[in-house]
Amino acid sequence: DIVLYNIKGEDANGRLLGEHVSTGIGRPHFWERARYYGEEQRLAIALEAMEKRAD
In which domain, by residue range, is 14 found? Predict the structure, then answer.
């Protein structure tokens, strides 16, 4: 998993409230596939952005 969903509670309608949090994995197992399709840079940027948001 590269992200987890931390449940904070429920709203008045019974819907879950929470947030997605990065697990801190820098190179997921699908990294090579992203490289193959030319998406390595976009994946790196997305993972870095999740890390900054989790701090």
Answer: 3-54
Taking only the tens of pLDDT, the chain with its 55 residues reads: 888 999 999 999 999 999 988 888 888 999 999 999 999 999 999 988 888 765 5
Rounded Cα distance, 51 and 55, in Å:
7
Q: Say what the pTM is.
A: 0.64
**φ/ψ (deg, to 5) at 53:** -70, -30
In the three-class reduction of DSSP (H, G, I as helix; E, B as strand; rest coil), residue 51 is classed as helix
Between the alpha carbon of residue 17 and those of residues 10, 12, 14, 47, the distances in Å are: 5, 10, 9, 23
What is the domain count for the chain? 1
